[in-house]
Task: structure prediction
Amino acid sequence: MSDRPDESLRWIEIPIALPPLGQTDVFAVGELELLLCNAEGTPYVVRDECPHVKASMKGGLIRGTILECPLHGGLMDLRDGSPRGLPIRRPGTCFPVRAEGDRWHVGLPD
Ligand code: FES
Result:
């Protein structure tokens, strides 16, 4: 999560509520499927495509900042997408999140 504006990104209001602690929910911006994650109260947004076999990670559980894929149990760090447990070997795609007023926004590349 970043508090600094980054004008090279297109900031989009996240259209769904933050899921319960340790859980995920999905939303889309155009054709981009995104996963909103609640890691101990901090929101993270990643592409909803597991780096293992590109399955959705909706329903995965989060401990600390580590998301466990619901399909095969691979682990990914939500802070930077880095792989933290097999069978995930490649990084996932993360997007910055910031608060604007009482809403969360995600920064997407133009
Ligand atoms: S699809 Fe996520 S670990 Fe296999």
